[in-house]
Amino acid sequence: MTLAVETETPLRLEGKYKAMAVCWVLGIGSLISWNSMLIIGDYYNNLFKKYHPTRALTLVYQPFALGTMAILAYNESKIDTRKRNITGYIIFFASTLALLLLDLATSGEGGLGPFLGVCVFVALFGVADAHVRGGIVGDLSFMYPEFMQSFFAGLAASGALTSGLRLLTKAAFEKSHDGLRKGVMLFLAICTSFEFVCILLYAFFFPKLPIVKYFRSKAASEGSKTVSADLAAAGIQTKAAQAEDEAKQYERLSNKQLFIQNFDYALDLFLIYVLTLSIFPGFLYENTGQHRLGEWYSLVLIASYNVWDLIARYIPLVKCVKLESRKGLMITILCRFLLVPAFYFTAKYGDQGWMIFLTSFLGLTNGYLTVCVMTVAPKGYKGPEQNALGNILVLFLLGGLFAGVALDWLWLIGKKDGF
Fold first, then answer.
1. Which of 14-23, 77-86, 287-296, 387-396 comes out lowest in average pLDDT?
2. What is the tens place of the pLDDT at every residue in 292-315?
3. Which of 154-168, 184-198, 208-222, 352-366 is the least confident region?
4. More confident position, 195 or 347
5. Which sign, positive or negative, has the C-alpha torsion 312, 316, 321, 327?
6. How many percent of the chain have pLDDT more than 90?
7. Position 4 confidence tier, pLDDT thresholds 50, 70, 90
8. What is the pLDDT of residue 6?
């Protein structure tokens, strides 16, 4: 028996731009729920003041994301990618809806009980993130690099979109009674609806695009087990003799070998997000002092970061400015740590214009370097290896997020000591 898949390169790969658009939307859906928590930090800061929610919720989110991702990355070759991703988007949808219902049920009151309820749903966001981000990145690793770029651009777009929506809802309800809460309710309702759209897109539209079917068929012919359900959803059945399948699996590099060969790329992602999350969002909400913009100041900083993060993720599409040198990437990422003293002295002595500039630069470098690493690393490997490598890289990315969140608390300690 042989593997019954489409392996010949078609004369015309149809659906490339539709696939890129879907990847962009799926990227938004992968982070819009969590970004909604970051962007309504002003509401939760008022509701749960003594619990430092902008820092505490991030610290709740990251361990669940990292722990779940570690389990999924270890077992990636045995996990059905379709079920994994759909499960992740369903958890996002249900948890965002639950946050909305929790606030309605408690009538927007603070206290330990409602705060613990918020923490539970934030933990579920972490579980969903590990399912979706690792699953989608692994899936896109053996397709066009532009698909990966579009997905990561979508991740950044979720931040820009939530920032824009939050500013609009805040402005719309600013003068009404209980306006802050009303804006948050509308905001969460929009995010919930978006997650539902992502479920439909991934489950029914994306698998049927000709270019997606081609790449998944190619990965299946190279021994990948993870794409069979997606191929079946597109009307392509895979059949393989057990011995042949085991032989193909044996030929691929192990996760350990892939990690050793790509240790620098994994470290790159870890260091990028250690720095970013040690500043964003906790420092921007609590350590930047009082300025002329008042309560809008933190929202403007978050929006500045998100917009430039989004713009930067399109820069690598211009080949002449895309950084592909392994040594060059590492040097650039290490130099980026100079932003730590820059933020410290700007918060202490600078004005709001310099802080907005630094925050924008933080987003610019974050987006640009992330896309450079994620699109360069999978080159030269077979489909199953690219899927495994994608999961390894996402694991280190989430590890960097977790370490950065932990380090973010040092700013708070410094503030108490007179910073």
1. 287-296
2. 555 667 778 888 888 899 999 999
3. 154-168
4. 195
5. positive
6. 45
7. very low
8. 45
- Cis peptide bond prior to 145, omega within 30° of 0: no
Residue 353 tokens read as 């214009």
Is the CA virtual torsion 69, 71, 73, 77 positive or negative? negative
Question: Mind spelling out the 3-state secondary structure of the chain?
Answer: CCCCCCCCCCCCCCCHHHHHHHHHHHHHHHHHHHHHHHHCHHHHHHHCHHHCHHHHHHHHHHHHHHHHHHHHHHCHHHCCHHHHHHHHHHHHHHHHHHHHHHHHHHCCCCCHHHHHHHHHHHHHHHHHHHHHHHHHHHHHCCCCHHHHHHHHHHHHHHHHHHHHHHHHHHHHHCCCCCHHHHHHHHHHHHHHHHHHHHHHHHHHHHHHCHHHHHHHHHHHHCCCCCCHHHHHHCCCCCCCCHHHHHHHHHHCCCHHHHHHHCHHHHHHHHHHHHHHHHHCCHHHHHCCCCCCCHHHHHHHHHHHHHHHHHHHCCHHHCHHHCCCCHHHHHHHHHHHHHHHHHHHHHHHHCCHHHHHHHHHHHHHHHHHHHHHHHHHCCCCCCHHHHHHHHHHHHHHHHHHHHHHHHHHHHHHHHHHCCC
Q: Which residue has the tokens 């350590």?
A: 287
pLDDT given for residue 282 in this prediction: 62
- Specify the pLDDT at position 3: 45
Task: Give dist(CA 369, CA 403) in Å, integer.
Answer: 18
